[in-house]
Amino acid sequence: MKRKLFLIYYFLVLSTISFSQKNNVFEDLIEEKIGTYELKQYPEKVFIHTDKNTYLAGEDIWFSGYLINAVTHRESTKSLVLHVELISPTDSIIATKKLLMTDINTAGDFKLDKKAKAGVYTIRAYTNYMRNFESTSFFIKKIYVIPDVFNDSKTINTTQNSETINNENKNKIEKPILNFYPEGGYLVNNLKSKVAVKLKGNGLDSLKPLITIEDNTGKQITTFTTYKFGLGFFIIKPNVFKTYVAKLTLADVTYTYQLPEILQNGHTLNVRKKRQELLINLETNLEKGLFGSTVVIHQRGKLIFKNTVYLSQKKGMLKIPLLNFNSGVVNITLFNAEHNPVSERLYFVNNVKQHPFAKISTQKDFFTSRKKVNLNISLTDSLQQNIPANLSLTIKKATPKLQKNTSHNIKSWLLLSSDIKGDIKNADYFFEKNKDSKREYLLDLVMMSNGWRGFTWQKLLNNNSVKNTYKIEKGITISGKTLDKKQPYGIKSAATRLSLKGGNFVKQMEKRSDTNGEFSYGPYVFFDTISVFIEARLTNFKSKDKKLRNISIVPNTAIASPKIAYDSVNITNFKYADYVVKYQKYLASLNSDFEKQDNVLDEVIIKARLKTKQEAREKQMKERASYGNTFFRYDIATNGTSGAITLLDLFANSPRIDVNYSDESIRVVNEGVPLLLLDEVPIEMEDLNFLDAEDISFYDVLIGPLAARFTSSQPVVSIYTKSGNGFISNVKRSPGIIDFNLAGFYVAREFYNTDHENGFEEQTKPDLRTTLYWNPKISTTKDNEFSFFTSDVKTSYIIELQGITNTGVPIYETKEIYIE
């Protein structure tokens, strides 16, 4: 008998050891997969800081774009290209900017059309790599173009009518939406659970309606109310043999809602904070208890904690020091003994001790019009040491928030909204005060009622590799396909040659398209529009046989922008129509008062000598030729074409060039066969018969040291077209050649800082600026000092500082000043 008991005990010990080893393998798998996600597969985040949120038609939209690693919140080492789009109220893209990201942030801008319609516009920003994930990861910001009430009376009527309609609808309450979110994910038989609720409906967010929970016998279980944003919670210990409903009464009408289904067996997960610890309570009604369960905690995809339970108790608690976390969303997942995720909970950590101290200082808070203001910015740690960071700064007129549910600063976006599913109404609210118990309570309900938008565990653990449809962009890539020009016009591998020309950017490369006919050059970095010239040959470029040109080149067009989700928000949703009207009337009155003033200027006499046409022409040609001097120049504007039809005919009239029509070639007299350049991009000799003489502006002959810029062994004939676009797009091309223009990266315009002390124009017109200062890129290694001038618009202004430290901590700080 004793021997039998010993064998049973020995078997149990071996089983426990085997199970422990199995779970160690699972923990290793978790660590491996999350480690790969953190280091290689990490997503990216984008944030756009605009100079303000409300604009008049014709104004400039100034912005700073931030691109970061979504896990560490430091500079992303993946993408170098940021796409920013301006979308109209009718959901059409009206402007795009392609920005080169050589740092964590860069400047950009849009120019609103003077006839831009009033309404809610959208700024959307993303990288090409972000398109591999859900489009909800894109950055979205609403801005408002306010109506011109003096030129469009319909706008006022529309706003007034919408207000009347809204007032009428207040008395017509449709059934509100009431959603339930059990903590951890499920209601489980005979296990106490905290259930968050979210009440949605017009005008219900600010109400505190009483809600009753009843079982199927009509017995009242509990009552509770919802608070700000329609959030609330209740506690219940459900029984699987009963059903439960919530009852809500509004305007003498009672609405009934069914609670979620109750699981017969399962787990619950409860999270709360106690002092500087995170308490995680686990409970199950399974016979084997929590044995074999694994708890995994990560923050934005960085593994913080993993532990497997080897005890058979049905309850357990973990204590995790909050110092282990950075500020932001924490994901807590419970896996059962079969390694399936059975319970999950988000929790928001606000680690105040990690927050840098940002300070904005001015000599005073109240100023008069057109006065110089000195501004100082400092960013320090608890030891008063300067913290390196990248920031952007705006000084804008303080205005009511037209739509609070769309507002984001860099802190609320990076730490909260960008990490969870669903929209958060007025996310900024949760960051306006530190250590505010009410905000912490509501934010925890937000965590319970939203899921993490990163990966799903099933996908992360089961997929060994991730194939991305959209590639990471490091610059501008030029690609396409080569096809046989003869039937059946199939894919054809061919030799290709790319020539680029734009400003001082000149490049030529050769490579062969692959077995799929695909070729790709780049990535390149350039900022002007350049000319692209692509050639293809069946074998190589040495042979003169024209049959080798029987290749069609199909360039890849730009990837279409992502689809735009329909948005019903428009001008009729403005809540501050009366403010808009009063504001525009105020600006009009300032302008009228200024026009009444007599501004008499002293007579100024300007003397200048008009340049002759020849001097202007010489200057024009000199500016186009990057090499300066020339051995010989032939100007068509002066000498004409002498009846020449092709460029080859034009050369036949030159005293410096010999033409051989039999093989369609040329030689520079006493120098030999030249290198041919068209707008400083190399071309072939046979192209001379396909270029019209009428399209040429002038050409130069370079020899000796003058030609050394382009070649070490040949003379050069450099030809310039009238269009100046690199290649003439309307000429008849021979097979195997295509050309087009390609736009480079956008370079932001510079914000004009008004100077009322030294500026001349400022003295002759009213100063109606509502953005007093804009600086899209500030690097803090020490205190930063700036200055700006106040305008004629007497009101309060917000100095707004946003950015991120080199260690990935977002910065948001404001200060209010007044012009009186």
Topology diagram in text:
Layout: H1 2-39, E1 44-50, E2 54-55, E3 60-69, E4 81-87, E5 93-100, E6 105-111, E7 119-126, E8 139-145, H2 153-169, E9 177-182, E10 187-188, E11 193-200, E12 210-215, E13 220-225, E14 231-236, E15 244-250, E16 253-258, E17 262-263, E18 267-274, E19 277-284, E20 294-299, E21 302-308, E22 315-321, E23 328-335, E24 341-349, E25 357-362, E26 366-367, E27 372-380, E28 389-397, H3 410-415, H4 437-448, H5 457-462, E29 476-484, E30 495-502, E31 505-512, E32 518-524, E33 530-537, E34 551-555, H6 577-596, H7 613-624, E35 632-635, H8 636-639, H9 647-652, E36 657-660, E37 665-668, E38 675-678, E39 681-682, E40 696-702, E41 716-721, E42 737-742, E43 771-780, E44 784-789, E45 796-805, E46 810-819
Parallel strand pairs: 2-8, 10-17, 26-46, 38-41
Antiparallel strand pairs: 1-3, 3-6, 4-5, 4-7, 7-8, 9-11, 11-14, 12-13, 12-15, 15-16, 18-19, 19-22, 20-21, 20-23, 23-24, 25-27, 27-44, 28-43, 28-45, 29-32, 29-34, 30-31, 30-33, 33-42, 35-40, 36-37, 38-39, 40-41, 45-46
What's a concise summary of this model?
It contains nine helices and 46 strands. By secondary structure, it is of the alpha+beta class.
Write up what this structure looks like.
With 820 residues, the protein is of the alpha+beta class. Helices cover 15% and strands 37% of the residues. It is built from 9 helices and 46 strands. A 5-stranded mixed β-sheet has the order 2-8-7-4-5, with no helix packed on it. Strands 26-46-45-28-43 form a 5-stranded mixed β-sheet. A 5-stranded mixed β-sheet has the order 35-40-41-38-39. It starts with a helix and ends with a strand.
